[in-house]
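Submission sheet (multi-component)
Chains listed below:
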Amino acid sequence: MNLREASLLGWGLLLLALGLTALGVCVGSAGFENLLQPLLNPLQDPDQTAMAQQIVWDIRLPRTLGAWAAGALLGLAGALAQGLFRNPLADPFLLGSASGASLGVAVALALLGGAVDMLGSSAGSDGGAGGMVGDGLAFTVFGTGWLTRLGLTGAAFVGAVLAVLLTLALSRGVQHTLRLLLAGVVVGVVLGALTQLVLVWSPESLQAMQAFMLGSTAFVGWSACAVMALTWALSSVAGALLARLLDGLSLGEATARSLGLPLTSMRLALVTVLALATGAAVAQTGLIAFVGLAAPHLVRARVKTTHGRLIFLSSLMGGVLLIAADTLARWLIAPQELPVGVLTAVLGGGYLLWLMHRGSHSGSGVI
Amino acid sequence: MTALDRCLLLLWPGLRSGLVALAVLAAASVAHALDVTDERGFRLSLVQPPQRIVSLLPSLTETVCELGACARLVGVDRNSDYPASVRQLPQLGGGLDPNIEAIVALQPELVLLATSSRAGERLRALGLKVLALEPKTHADVKRVLETVGQVLGVPDASRVWRVIDASIQAATQSLPPSVASTRVYFEVNPGPYGAGETSFIGETLTRLGVKNIIPAKLGVFPRLNPEFIVRANPDVIMIGQRSLDSMGQRPGWSHLRAVQAQRVCVFTTAQSDVLVRPGPRMAEGARLMAQCLAEKVGTVKAAAARALPVPVSPAIATPAGRP
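Outcome: structure written.
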């Protein structure tokens, strides 16, 4: 029964993802009709056709698929984190990877000489704290060539992975889940404070930083898409292999040990997968709130199943969530765009709340 | 005269015009087959001057227009608002959330953006020609003008700089020598962040011959402890309209010399735009600052000198002493 429900949900989510991909390719600031004409009559104006093809194949398709991959990574990481910590509130960023990524970006921005007049005074006139800081107010630091090559993406990934390593070092390994959790929280707070400090030193990167924190799939190209898809494939395999541990842990630590599971090494592997999946997603798309937290809950609300299936299904659920949010973000105020992170937080939060209340009324709480 | 000579003589006018045409062509291709390395170290080669340009930085938009190529702009970022003609152009998001798709849809031959912009990589990967420039100092403004002039095929870019330079010089000369001892605090943001000596605003202040209360060692645009400003007690405060609202509540500020003597220059939002953009309107910024100094310091000094036999420092001149 469970198996049938689970596979039904899986196929449903896959179909939904396909449909949303098709929809995502049609939505964008350049519109749909404007592109259809040159695509259907390639002989009329080869220039326009080339442009339309580029927009569809090199911009919309990779960012739509990238949104799915990033959502899938976050959903997977969320399921892993909630299983590992045996806590329904756990999210993929719990081990400090989000604040690590932010710090990495802040440092890179400060060293590169941050945002200039694009943030300009008009940004400040919106009432933000930007004020007159902005236009060209930046530091010049020499010898940042390597940083330029690494880019913000690389800096974010390095920051995320280093933060998880720091958490592991502070918790002296993974034997104690509670210690790991606390170390993650501490690392998150301290690195967040360091980020603030860097931003005080180089105020011009403040808004660049904010833009990164909001999360966006606008910069996802085929290479970024490939990186995320590869990471997702690897993490899925690793997740499937490690699901046994999570099933064991859900019965309590003592039971898991009595089952003969190598707790320490499996936990370490789990944390590594968690760090890589979250790091890859954060580095390419910035901080996208709530997908990682909500996806496993949404799956559990539909089917009760083992961790192996839960991981895979919440991965699919995360992908669908983000692809839908991304398409919506491009469509709502077209030709402009909303940051997708804002949308996931609002929609995901609202839906989860509704689910929670519905659950409590019917007496079978989801959370 | 041999037959060959005669033949050559007959053919000469044709040959000559052909040669001239060839020479012009060669010169044209030499002038436009251009290789530029931008500030991120990327090589850009252009066969001919770009006719469709997107600018994602207000100061670069102003630079393009100052070089007389405003008509070649096909799209700008949402903060580019000067000259007025660029407000009609499609807005392609901000510098940080540029709309990649909209930029590509415009099919630009050149995209100008900030060095720190995240869009550069993505646009380059999509096959667009991208030039990343980020003016931060007076020398940068000159260099950016020259680079953009070179890329656009505009020959008199250095003349534009000379005009800016001369205008700043003129602004300096318009000031009475008495302003030399004036100590100025330029606030860019109610953080409070001030303009240090090494910033381009600081460079302008130095050229105007006044003293900046923020020494170079504090950084370009340091975040200041409000106490620092109270202790430095500047003679003149230059501040944006938005900063002014919060100024009244700052502890100790009512006792500042500049506040008591009402030597606070408040710039409107439009004026602030001029002042904080390191672009071709820098000379206008210098004029605004000079005007402020002349109003707040020059006349007080003159009035004080008229009223008293002994010249006093502006520090003890009170509002009552103003004409």
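Remark: Chain A has one domain: 2-356.
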